[in-house]
Write a structure and sequence with these properties.
The structure is a single chain. Helices cover 43% and strands 17% of the residues. It is built from twelve helices and nine strands. A five-stranded mixed β-sheet has the order 3-2-1-4-8, with helices on both faces. Strands 5-9-6-7 form a four-stranded mixed β-sheet. The termini are far apart.
Length: 320
C-alpha cells in the first residue's frame, strides 16, 4: 500500500451530481496535494456515479465507495473507516473550498503543541436572482464570512464546549481533525438524522481544544434541498444539546462554564421554535408536546408563546 497521505478528505454524496464537479475540483486543486479523496455515494439515483467515475479516471487520488441509502452519518463513518491520512477533513457534496484551505489549516495544526481540532470561518453562498451562483473566486472575495464568537481559537487553541452548547458555529465543511482524535471520540452517530455533525463536535470539544482560522475557507451552498431546511419529526437540535448536558455537563475541560439560566433559555427557544415549525407543517399534536417541553425550561410562557399555544389549541379543537 502506498505511503499514507497527510489528509483524507471524506465526501458523502446523495444525488449531488449537479454540484459534485465544483466540489471535488475545489478539493483536488488544493495547494496541498498530499491527500486522498474518499467519496461515499449513499445510494444516489441520479447520474452521480457517472460524474464520480469521470473524476476518478483523471485523478488517482479519488476513491469511490458505494452503499445503500443510509444517511450521511453512515456514509461519513464508512469513509472514516477507510481513511489513511494523519488528518481527516470533511466536505459536503454541494460545498466548495478555498484553494488554500488545507494549507492554511495545516499551518495552524503543525504549530499546536497538543492534539486539536481545526475549523475556519465560512461564507453563505446563496443563488443569484437568476438562480446561478457567483463563481467561487468571486464569492470568496465578495461574501462576508460567518464569524460567531469572534477571536475564539484564533491565536491559540481554545476549549469551546461551553460555547458550542450555546450555538453551532463549527461547520462540517471547514473541519480538519487528527485521525487519532476522531477514532478515540468515535464517529458520527447515525441515530441522529440531522445534527450528527453538531453532536460530534460537542463530543470532541468535551475533551479537546479547537483552533480556528479566521478567513472564510469554504462556501456553504444554499439551495432548497439542503437537509438543514427540511422538516423533521424529531427536534434533533434540542435532543443533541440535552444529551450533551447529560454526558458532559456545562463546563469545558478547562473549567469555563455556561450559566444554567443561559442553557435553559437556549433549550426553551429550541423547543418553542420547533413547536412553531410543527404548527407551520400542520403537526399540531407534535406542536403541543414541543410546547410542553419548552414550558419545562421556563416557568411561564412569553406573550408570543402564549399566542402560539392558543393557535395550536384552536386548530386542534377544529380538527376534533
Amino acid at each position: 500500500m502506498a505511503e499514507s497521505p497527510a489528509f483524507s478528505v471524506i465526501c458523502p454524496n446523495y444525488n449531488g451530481s449537479l454540484f459534485l464537479q465544483a466540489c471535488l475540483t475545489s478539493v483536488l486543486e488544493q495547494t496541498v496535494d498530499d491527500l486522498e479523496v474518499i467519496v461515499v455515494d449513499d445510494g444516489s439515483t441520479d447520474d452521480s456515479i457517472e460524474v464520480l467515475n469521470g473524476l476518478a479516471a483523471t485523478d488517482p487520488r479519488v476513491r469511490i465507495e458505494s452503499q445503500g441509502n443510509a444517511g450521511s452519518a453512515v456514509a461519513r463513518n464508512h469513509g472514516i473507516a477507510l481513511a489513511r491520512g494523519s488528518y481527516i477533513a470533511f466536505i459536503d457534496a454541494d460545498d466548495v473550498w478555498h484553494p488554500q484551505k488545507l494549507e492554511k489549516q495545516h499551518e495552524l495544526l503543525l504549530r499546536a503543541t497538543m492534539p486539536v481540532a481545526c475549523f475556519s470561518n465560512f461564507s453563505l453562498w446563496p443563488p443569484e436572482r437568476d438562480g446561478r451562483y457567483l463563481a467561487p473566486s468571486e464569492a470568496f472575495s465578495q461574501l462576508e464570512p460567518v464569524d460567531e464568537f469572534p477571536g475564539i481559537g484564533v491565536d491559540k487553541p481554545a476549549f469551546v464546549y461551553h460555547l458550542l452548547l450555546q450555538d453551532v458555529f463549527v461547520w462540517t465543511s471547514t473541519v480538519v481533525v487528527p485521525s487519532t482524535v476522531l477514532h478515540e471520540v468515535g464517529g458520527f452517530d447515525p441515530s441522529y438524522r440531522k445534527g450528527q455533525d453538531y453532536d460530534l463536535w460537542l463530543r470532541i470539544a468535551a475533551r479537546y481544544p479547537f483552533l480556528r482560522h479566521p478567513d472564510s475557507l469554504a462556501l456553504y451552498r444554499q439551495h432548497p434541498d439542503n437537509i438543514t431546511y427540511r422538516y423533521s419529526e424529531v427536534n434533533y437540535g434540542a435532543v443533541i444539546v440535552e444529551n450533551a448536558l447529560r454526558s458532559s455537563g456545562l463546563s469545558s475541560p478547562d473549567g469555563q462554564m455556561v450559566r444554567e439560566d443561559i442553557m435553559r433559555r437556549r433549550l426553551w427557544k429550541l423547543w418553542s421554535d420547533y413547536a412553531d415549525n410543527c404548527r407551520h407543517h400542520g403537526k399540531y399534536e407534535s406542536a403541543i408536546r414541543a410546547l410542553a417541553s419548552a414550558r419545562h425550561y421556563r416557568a411561564h410562557y412569553s406573550n408570543s408563546l402564549r399566542a402560539l399555544v392558543w393557535r395550536v389549541e384552536q386548530k386542534l379543537i377544529g380538527l376534533r
